[in-house]
Amino acid sequence: MDPHLLRTFGAVARLASFSAAAAELGYTQSAVSQHIAALESDLGVELLSRRPVAPTEAGARLLDHVGPLLLRLDAARADVVRVARTPVSRLVVGTSGTAFGPRAARALAEVRGRLPRTEVTVRLLDRAAVVPAVAGGDVDLGLVDGAVAPTDPLPLPEATGLSPLGAGEEPLAVLLPPGHPLTGGARLGDLSEALWLDAPAAAVPLDDLRAAVGGGFPSAVRYAGGDARVLHELVRAGHGLALLPASAAGPGALPLTAPRLVHRVEIVRPPSPTPAAALFAELLGAPLGH
């Protein structure tokens, strides 16, 4: 059904007059009559009695639908126009290792909900490459992570104009193979001579563990990827242990009890972030405009 014909029918039925409807809609009376005839022909029923002008039984039933139908069409038109006038923006997030966790995923979903025409890319980078990527404009915003003492900042390289901002901390946990004798909690010092996976993109780097305890942490297998499933399977098969944020380690991992370290994530953003990057940073808990 043509919405123009429906609009004309609604006006005639409401005003009980072809001439009054023509005046309200800016049509000639002849055009209004043609609209009603076309709608009746389309539906194959008489919708209006002419003397007096009033809806027939079928017309009254159609009239019940006309208002909601036209309202939905108007809303659809306004929505299409709004979307067409909203410029497409981009958000490229560069993230190290396990920096992109549940909070970041939820914040990104919120950004897409508020800015639906934002094209989003999440790019995995080496930890050392995140700050240069933001500084060089290769990404709009960076997430970097590491194991530090609670509330301590990450040791990031300095870059003019970039502002690292805390985006959250969570406990760490040691991922162990099935049947490992260790229970309760894990102390890094007690595990420094065990075999570990060298997986800097998927777990806490071994250099961080050595710095915290002082040496040790031998490795026979290096995993250069960032897929958590691969890491879990390597640990499950006995190739080594891994230290992860508790949310990534899963329920079978043992919480780290000593030394007192947490998994910290920081946001690195340029001086003038895009609206999408600024919103993402704000949702992750970073103060805006500082």
Automatic annotation (TrEMBL):
Family classification = Belongs to the LysR transcriptional regulatory family.
Q: Is Membrane given among the entry's keywords?
A: no
Q: Does the keyword DNA-binding apply?
A: yes
Keywords from the UniProt entry: DNA-binding, Transcription, Transcription regulation
Give GO terms: molecular function aspect only: DNA-binding transcription factor activity; transcription cis-regulatory region binding
Q: What is this protein called?
A: DNA-binding transcriptional regulator, LysR family
* Domain HTH lysR-type residues, every copy: 1-56
